[in-house]
Structure formats: C-alpha cells, structure tokens
Design brief:
This protein has four domains: 9-21 and 555-686, Sandwich (Jelly Rolls), CATH 2.60.120.380; 31-107, Peptidase S8 propeptide/proteinase inhibitor I9 (Alpha-Beta Plaits, 2-Layer Sandwich); 137-435, Rossmann fold (3-Layer(aba) Sandwich), CATH 3.40.50; 441-547, Immunoglobulins (Immunoglobulin-like, Sandwich), CATH 2.60.40. It has 14 helices and 35 strands. By secondary structure, the chain is α+β, with helices and mostly antiparallel strands. The radius of gyration is 28 Å and the shape is elongated.
C-alpha cells in the first residue's frame, strides 16, 4: 500500500480496494441466492426488503441505494431489491426516508427443518404391525396413538360430524406430496412456488418442480397430520376432510423472508382458512410479521410450531402476537424434552414418534417422526374443525376454543393451556357457534417523541403489552405478554390478542442502532384496555409520547466540509472531537490534519458503533503530507470491536492526515454508506 500517492479521492479508494479485507462471513449455498452472516444477522447477499407507502417513495429508495427491483408484494406494499455491497448496511441508508415504513436485509434466520436432529424420519413402511396396539388406535388401517382416546381423541370429534369439511389448510413448508395415496384426494388443486411466483395446478407439474429431491420430505409428513384421508388405508389426518395447499418455502434451503411473506399472502388470497408453519428461528422481521398480520386481519388462523430448542424461549413466528404456538407432547401427554416452551405457548399436541406419510419420491408409505413440527399441524387440524363448524370464528376465538377444551384446562409454561382434546372440542362445537369464547382484540399503538425541539415520529421503538396482574416467575401464570416494534410511522400493531387491561411499556429507539446515551432513549409506562371485537379497521388505539431525543435523520456534522486535504480539520494531540458523521453524501471521507515530529508515537482511535452505538463500522487511514497511506485499520478486534485504531511512530517532522470513513465505502470503489446513524468521535493522542 505504501508508495501510492493520494492524487484524488477516487484514486485513494481504488488503491484501498486492493488491500482491504472483507469481514468474516459464513457462506451457505442455498436456492436461489447466497446467504451471508453480517453482524450476527443471516441474510441473502446483496438483497434488501423495503416496506413503502407509495410508488414515489419506493422509486426514491431504489435511486438512493442504486438498487434494482427483483419482486414486490402489492398487498403488503413491500419490495425486494438487489443492492451492491453489504445489504445490512445498505438497508440503513433508507432509515427515515419519507414514505418508507421499514428497510431490512432479506432475512434468512430460519434453518431448514431437516437440520433439526429430532425431526429425522424413521421409515417403517414394511415393519409396522397392528398387533400389540390397542384397537382404539386403529382409526384407518395403521396404528396412530396420537389420535386415540387418550390423546387427541379424534374419533369422538368425527363421530359428531366434525372432520374439517370445506376448510383449506395451507402447508407452508417444503413441497408436500400431492400424489401420496393418503393425500391425493384431499389436495386443494393448487401448489405454489413463491420464488418464481408460479402456481401449479397439476400433480405432474408439481412433481417436476420437486424433482425427486431427497431433502424434501418434511411438508408431506406435516400435511398428512392434517389432511390424510380417512379411507380405510394407511393413516388418517386429524381433520380428514380438509383440503391442503402446499407452499414451498424450503427448496431445500430456506427461500427467505420475502418469499415466505409472498407465500403467506398467496395462501390467504387462494382460500386458506388456516396456515400451518412448522418452522421458525430467532430475530424479528417486519415483513413476515406484516404478512401474518395480513392473514389475521382476513380472519385466517395462524399456527406455528414452538421450536425444538429444549429451552424456555420465544422463537418466531411462534412469538408474534395473534399466532397459536404449539408445544410437543409425548405418549404420556407430557412435554417432550426437546420442545421449546414458555408463557407464549397456547397448547400441546403429540410430537414424539408420530406416524405420518412419507413422500412417494422417497419410497412412499409411512414413517415415525418427532418434533414440534408435527404437534403444530395437529393443532392446525383442530383449528380447521372449528372453522368448518363456525366459518366466521375469529383467530382468537379459535385459539381460546382450543385452550378451553384441553385435557388439563389449566395453564403451565410447558404446555400452555394443556394437551388438545378434540372430543371436548366437539362437545363445545355441538352447542353452536354462539358458545365460542369472546372475540379477541386488535390494538394499534402510536408512538411519538417530544422534547424542547418539538414533536417527532416514534421510530424504532419497542412496545410491550403485559396483562394486568402478571405474576413474574410463576410457571402457572397465564397472563399474556406481547411485543412488537414500531415502523417509521411510529406504529406498532397487535392482532387477535386477549381482550382486557394491560400495562404498556414503551422504550424509544434502540441505541445499538441510533447511538447516544441511555437517558436519551426515553421510556413510558401506562395502561390500556383492549376491547373485545376490535378490528384492523377499528382497533383499540393508544397514543404514547416519550420524552426522548428524537431520532435525528438529518444530523449536522460540525466539521463539514472536510472532504479532502485542502479542507481538513486541524487536530492537536490530546483532542477528542465532537460527534461527527459519515453522512450527507454516498461516499463520505472525513479528513483531519495534525503536525507531528519524528519519533512521535501516535494513537488515533475512532469511537463508533462498538463504543457509542449507531451504525458506523469505521475505517481509519493515516496519510503523510504527500498523501501516501502509512497505516490503516478496520477493526480493533476483528469480528468483535468494529471501531478502528492506529498506533504508529511518525518517521519525520511534518504534516499528517487522518481519514475516517466506513468499511463499506473503503472496501469498494462504488459502494455507498450514507446513514444518519453513522456517528463517531475521533481521538488523537501522543503516546510517548
């Protein structure tokens, strides 16, 4: 690097690209793109998801990021864009842009179900015997303990006429086999690939898409728990007269949050009344939450498996408001060791060694398999029994009908309200739809910041609703707790939640994003009453104002313009600058100048994201008076402390320059990084 002369900013950038090293990333092949991990977030390389208010805002966002459009979901006003460079950092460029509700990298936090060791099937097609099984476990041809009178009690529901007829259940998973003998007659006639936006209406076309992939078996097992026909052969699903719609979100890798959201919307628009989601991960995605909100707002029941983490924790999508989270139970109706659990769990269903259908491209027949992936579809099937009997039942009414008819009818963090019992459920349904529980609530919270400078949108705030009377630490306490994040309009939505009185807790923008002092974040504690029967069109509304620093989307840099040697800001040893920004132009380089003597050991430190918050992954250069790069640094501790520091002994008396920019800009001659949260302070000391 040494010996290159700084003739212009462009030549500096070109020279730096040759020696800059990219941050450590994990590359995993998937379809159709490459997944990377940046700042601990798994996402698709070079892809950003944008929620927009109107076409003008979207086009402005595209121009600002120099992006190209890949696809969009009109119902959600969301677009998938391709960008150059780091998608995580590119998404931050749009923070606060008028008309943009959110911008996030195209998330890939979910792993394929086959990666979960408890979900591997054990194929038993030729070895299954009915001998030794109680006769009440033979509901079709093969023994199914999950459906017997000591577990789900399926026959008690069927005998009263509750089999799910007329209800369509979407299987949002890997591609379910529509030709399996137990599933063919209950296929709804459509199947969907959200990546190519292709709807298949023939079995041959769908099988051609699947292409005999040995890693695609999960969706078939899941679909059969719901919709396997009761026809005297093989097995029966819990709702044997439902129709199922396959939506392929694993191909075999996870297709990404955008395509999952597109698949959810497609399923709702194509008649699904119940969505089963036997998948999940960690983190929070605005787009997927909005997609599920779209389903809930349209009266569609959403079920999600709790996860197989063995922990008391909240995973998504099971933890989103309004979703029915299912834990897995064993043959004794106890929670399995592997099942995720917690206050958010609604109920439990069999999930250990359940007998389900194996896809024909893997030999057909049946197999034993374990995981909350299979308690989930049993729960979705029970929900379908309700929707068939009471089509106008709201998602919350369906949830409470399931919860109030369990074996236990009492709450625990391990199984929610208990193990499902469709015989009890049928007894409730036989009383008519007026016997269903009270409808739930839809809550909208609007957050604003105020201070001596005025009133500002409540961007990036966290909102928690905690039911009154919560007993912290009590494992039998069912008091609901919900959490959501505001968009750039300051709005947070809670669909289909428990009616009643809540304590509401709001915290202003996360300082890990915006930077600043803890007292600048601002908090609010108050109450609200969620009204039964409130809807998306007429929600329970709460206005919250935080006495907090506004999220400054157009900050002033006191040292600008300092974009070259001629404009460099003078520094003296012992100086710590005011807050400055890499902001205001796509490729900002901030120049500072100082005088030094031969033998001076200088220490130049950039305090940025790792120390003061914000988004700046800094990069620092030391130049001599002729513009030669003497030293440079990206991270003080690679992968851990992303601030920059140079310790260097000056070779001669003279004038020197320190140049601050971002890693994104330094690593590519065309990449831009222009976030209002790219804040830093520069310190220069003489160490000897």
């Amino acid at each position: 690097m040494k010996g290159y002369r700084l003739i212009s900013l462009i030549s500096l950038v070109v020279a730096l690209v040759a020696c800059s090293q990219p941050p450590s990333q994990t590359h995993l092949p998937t379809s159709p793109e490459v997944i990377v991990t940046s700042e601990g977030v798994r996402h698709f390389q070079g892809q950003v998801v944008v929620g927009y208010q109107d076409e003008t805002a979207l086009q402005e966002a595209i121009a600002k990021m120099e992006a190209t459009e890949i696809a969009r979901i009109p119902e959600l006003r969301a677009a998938l864009l391709r960008v150059k460079g780091d998608a995580l950092k590119a998404s931050r460029v749009l923070k606060g842009l008028a008309g943009i509700r959110y911008a996030e990298p195209h998330l890939a936090q979910v792993l394929p179900p086959k990666d979960d060791p408890v979900e591997q099937p054990r194929h038993r097609s030729d070895a299954l015997q009915t001998l030794g099984n109680p006769s009440d476990q033979i509901l079709d041809e093969l023994p199914q303990y999950a459906l017997d009178p000591r577990h789900l009690s399926a026959k008690a529901a069927w005998d009263q006429g509750f089999e799910g007829e007329g209800v369509v259940v979407a299987i949002i998973d890997d591609p379910a086999d529509v030709t399996h003998p137990d599933l063919a007659q209950n296929w709804a006639g459509k199947a969907y690939d959200p990546v190519t936006d292709t709807t298949y209406t023939t079995a041959s076309g769908w099988l051609s898409f699947i292409n005999n992939n040995p890693n695609l078996y999960h969706g078939t097992f899941v679909a059969s728990a719901v919709s396997a026909a009761r026809d005297g052969q093989g097995i029966a699903g819990l709702a044997p007269k439902t129709k199922f719609l396959p939506v392929a979100i694993f191909q075999p890798g996870y297709v990404g949050d955008f395509y999952v959201a597109r698949g959810i919307v497609w399923a709702v628009n194509n008649g699904a009344q119940v969505l089963n989601n036997s998948w999940g991960g960690l983190g929070y995605g605005h787009l997927v939450k909005e997609a599920f909100d779209y389903a809930l707002a349209n009266g569609v029941v959403v079920v999600a498996s709790a996860g197989n983490s063995y922990k008391d924790e909240v995973r998504t999508p099971a933890g989103y408001p309004g979703i029915i989270a299912s834990a897995a139970a064993d043959g004794n109706r106890n929670k399995t060791a592997f099942s995720t659990f917690g206050r958010h769990i609604s109920s439990a269903a069999p999930g250990l060694d359940v007998l389900l259908a194996n896809p024909t491209w893997l030999g057909g027949g049946y197999g034993l398999i374990s995981g909350t992936s299979f308690s989930g579809p049993y729960t979705a099937a029970a929900a379908a029994l309700i929707k068939a009997a009471c089509p106008k039942a709201t998602p919350y009414q369906v949830r409470r009908a399931l919860e109030t008819t369990t074996w236990e009818q009492a709450f625990s963090r391990e199984k929610g309200w208990g193990h499902l019992h469709t015989g009890n459920l049928a007894n409730l349904l036989s009383q008519g739809c007026s016997a269903l529980p009270t409808p739930g609530s839809v809550v909208k919270v609007k957050v604003e910041y105020f201070n001596e400078n005025g009133l500002f949108p409540g961007l990036f705030a966290d909102v928690m609703l905690r039911g009154k009377g919560l007993r912290a630490g009590d494992p039998t306490d069912s008091t609901p707790v919900y959490w959501a994040r505001t968009d750039t309009n300051g709005e947070a939505w809670f669909y289909e939640i428990t009616p009643g009185e809540y304590d509401i807790y709001v915290a202003g923008a996360d300082l890990s994003l915006t930077g600043g002092l803890p007292e600048e974040r601002g908090t609010f504690v108050g109450t609200l009453v969620a009204t039964p029967g409130s809807t998306a069109g007429s929600p329970t509304f709460k206005q919250v104002r935080l006495n907090a620093s506004e999220v400054n989307l157009n900050p002033h840099d006191p040292y600008e313009p300092n974009d070259g040697q001629a404009q460099a800001t003078p520094l003296a040893y012992g100086t710590l600058t005011q807050l400055a920004y890499i902001f205001g132009q796509p490729r900002d380089f901030d120049f500072f100048t100082f005088s030094g003597s031969a033998g001076d050991e200088i220490r130049a430190r950039v305090y940025a994201r790792s120390s003061i918050g914000g988004t700046l992954d800094s990069y620092l250069y030391l130049l001599d008076g002729s513009g030669n790069v003497l030293a440079e640094n990206d991270d003080i501790v690679p992968g851990q402390i992303t601030d920059s520091e140079i310790v260097f002994t000056l070779p001669a008396d003279g004038t020197y320059h320190l140049v601050v920019t971002s890693y994104t800009i330094a690593s590519s001659p065309t990449a831009s990084d222009n976030s209002p949260f790219n804040k830093y302070r520069l310190q220069l000391v003489k160490a000897n």
